[in-house]
Predict the 3D structure of the following.
Amino acid sequence: MLTEAGFDAALNLMKIPVDQKDELPIKSVEIQEIVNKIIDSPAPKDYIPIGAKAKTTTHKISLRKRGFRQAVIEAYDCRCAVCGLKLHAPHAYSWEVQAAHIVPRSKQGKDDIWNGVALCRLHHWAFDVGWFTLQNNYSIQISSQTKSLLPNIGKMNNIDFFQQLTTNKKIYLPEKVSLYPHSNSLNWHRQNIFQP
Ligand SMILES: [Zn+2]
């Protein structure tokens, strides 16, 4: 496995801009260490999903960000927790699934596995705008506002995007219970993002 410096050199050789590293799923030794640390940490009883602005360097923040993304995606086996979609484009190196923050980064949400959930692009967007949220038992709660949408909204041919968001349906969860989203993160999302 390459180190970050080796990784940069390899990207240079392939003429791939180094800043695209954030989008590539290849892990360096440093990223693997962060992933291991995230995956092996015991779940805290009382967890605060919001952190003060980090005082660390941008380099460290970027490593942590990539480590968070890898850890969340691996924990959910590269699947969307809502629809189970596991997909990548023919020429893409990375899975379509994204590591969503439950308390968003814009609100100082932490890059911790207990503040993360793997979602496809559509469900990530719907979660971020508050179309749905999660109960503490990991079942889906849909915004009642979806009922006022026009019947053809959220539909593409025969696919009904909102249909996968079924109230009370449980999401797919990681194998290890210690990696499940924390109830404090979910409480925050229900109170601050969700549109009941
Ligand atoms: Zn999905």
User: Anything to note?
Assistant: The beta strands are 98-101, 116-119, 132-134, 140-142, 155-156, 159-160.
